[in-house]
Specification:
The complex is a heterodimer of chains A (233) and B (236). Chain A has one domain. Chain A contains twelve helices and no strands. In chain A, helix 4 packs across helix 8 and helix 4 crosses helix 11. The radius of gyration of chain A is 17 Å and the shape is globular. Chain A starts with 9 loop residues before the first helix and ends in a 10-residue tail after the last helix. Chain B is of the alpha/beta class and 236 residues long. Chain B has a single domain, classed as Rossmann fold (3-Layer(aba) Sandwich). Helix content of chain B is 35%, strand content 16%. Chain B is built from nine helices and seven strands. Chain B has a seven-stranded parallel sheet with strand order 3-2-4-1-5-6-7, with helices on both faces. In chain B, helix 2 links the parallel strand 2 and strand 3. The termini of chain B are far apart. The chains are: A mainly alpha (233), B alpha/beta (236). The interface between A and B is medium-sized, with 23 and 21 residues. Chain A: It holds the Pfam family UreF. Chain A: InterPro entries: UreF, UreF_sf. Chain A: This is Urease accessory protein. Chain A: Keywords: Chaperone, Nickel insertion.
Chain lengths: 233, 236
């Protein structure tokens, strides 16, 4: 085994995992702010990360894998994937959060790769979900195609981002050691990899896992009406 | 989504400055004075609440739906400069919902002397100080004070009560700004309010005629970025 990779998609992996990427993610907490407001204790945050990785994030990772595969087809049609994910996200607040992040990623994709066929196809992705903007995994898949990323790379980027989103928000919401928060993400590696395996196994929109959590949906819904909040979602 | 600036889209005006210097009040004043002649909307960036949006709505100077609050994840500086996504989304939504708009005001979350808007978010920006924050602040400099398109020294009517010489503070600002305008302002000072409105009308006219180019105060002291090469260069 050589000591370098061939570099395919490697820059995309780094960019999509970078908190400095200008897509609006810094204003999101993956519903952690609402969970803490509802009584979740600081020591339960690692459990919360696991729950997100097995639920919302697994469904989004699978959708991102499907979107990347669709992005390599001709013509590109994201609409069934968007519809499948929307149908598996019963909480309007969580759909809105995903759409908010999707909007930022779409702006980035159009700015970086305006000529790419998958980026052009983002315009028709919401055709089967009237009133709902394109969800986060769809432009993630389109960007993955533009960068030449592999499906597991896109899935892992989606899942890592979820874990890091919670950890970073926790540091704003509760006192704590930033290294301890980083450890939560490192310790979540088995859960990330398990969800990567499930996600890359998705081959048709019906394979997107349906794993909504009623308690999480309720917290997310309450947060949308909170008038004292740091994070949009 | 209107992503490419053209002279037909609304002028986007940012108002930045430290907490409590009167940014919301300045925006309420602009709405009160200009809403009769211009189609306007406002985006606020509160830190923890939607207090600024509520204040503006309760001021009754603009329809509630034309005032949109965004959350910044405790990063008000980031949200107007390094990652302007949430603000661009809000501005574009307002421009679409109330087209055609003449003027969109973006109020930054109260931050510090280094927070200025990205030129990708606003076309022009006001930096707001106030006399109650201390007569020496204008001398302290920073990109907003030295290079914003307009520096406002607000609450000038309070100067006698806090022992600040407004004329001196304005002179300090002018000295730091190499000729860019400084305005002493108080809500009750009708002449100053009219000067503020005239400045906005002037920038809007330039924007419509294609004469206005957004310029960036920069994140740092002006000495480190003086290679912009156009008429607003710092000359040193």
């Amino acid at each position: 085994m050589g000591d370098t990779t061939d570099g395919t998609g490697a820059l995309g992996v780094l960019l999509l995992a970078d908190a400095r990427l200008p897509t609006g993610a810094h204003a999101h907490s993956a519903t952690l702010e609402a969970a803490l407001a509802a009584g979740l204790r600081t020591e339960q945050i690692p459990d919360y990360i696991r729950a997100r990785l097995r639920g919302v994030a697994r469904a989004e990772a699978a959708a991102a894998v499907l979107a990347l595969r669709a992005a390599r087809e001709n013509p590109v049609d994201f609409a069934p994937i968007q519809a499948a994910l929307a149908a598996r996200t019963p909480s309007r607040a969580l759909r809105d959060a995903s759409a908010s992040l999707g909007r930022g990623l779409t702006r980035l994709a159009r700015g970086l790769f305006p000529e790419h066929s998958a980026v052009a196809a983002l315009a028709t992705a919401p055709d089967d979900t009237p009133g709902l903007r394109v969800l986060r995994p769809i432009p993630l898949g389109a960007l993955g195609a533009a960068f030449g990323m592999a499906v597991d790379q896109v899935a892992r980027a989606a899942l890592y981002d979820e874990a890091q989103c919670v950890a970073a928000a926790a540091l704003k919401l509760r006192p704590g050691d930033p290294i301890a928060a980083t450890r939560w993400v490192v310790d979540a590696a088995p859960d990330i990899e398990e969800s990567v395996r499930v996600a890359v196994g998705a081959t048709v929109p019906g394979d997107v896992p349906a794993r909504s959590a009623p308690q999480l949906d309720r917290w997310a819904g309450a947060h949308a009406y909170s008038t004292r909040r740091l994070f949009v979602a | 989504m209107p992503e490419n600036p053209t002279s037909t889209r609304a002028l986007r005006l940012g108002v930045a400055g430290p907490v409590g210097t009167g940014k919301s009040s300045l925006i309420a004043t602009l709405c009160r004075e200009l809403a009769g002649e211009l189609a306007m909307a406002v985006v606020t960036n509160d830190i923890y609440t939607d207090e600024d949006a509520r204040f503006l709505r309760s001021a009754g100077v603009l329809d509630h739906e034309r005032i949109h609050a965004v959350q910044t994840g405790a990063c008000p500086h980031t949200a107007i400069r390094d990652d302007i996504t949430a603000n661009l989304d809000a501005v574009e939504d307002l421009e679409l919902a109330f087209a055609p708009l003449d003027l969109v005001l973006v109020e930054s979350g109260g931050d510090n002397l280094t927070a200025t808007f990205s030129p990708a978010l606003v076309d022009t920006q006001v930096f707001c100080l106030d006399v109650a924050g201390g007569g020496d602040v204008a001398r302290k400099g920073g990109p907003g004070i030295t290079s914003a398109d307009l520096l406002v020294v607000n609450k000038s009517d309070l100067a006698p009560f806090v022992g600040v010489d407004v004329g001196r503070m304005v002179a300090d600002g002018e000295k730091a700004r190499e000729g860019r305008p400084v305005l002493a302002l108080a809500r009750s000072d009708t002449a100053a309010v009219e000067r503020l409105c005239s400045w906005v009308r002037g920038v809007l006219a330039d924007h419509r005629e294609g004469r206005h180019t957004p310029r960036d105060p920069g994140p740092m002291a002006p000495h480190t970025h003086a290679v912009d090469g156009h008429e607003h260069g710092h000359g040193h």
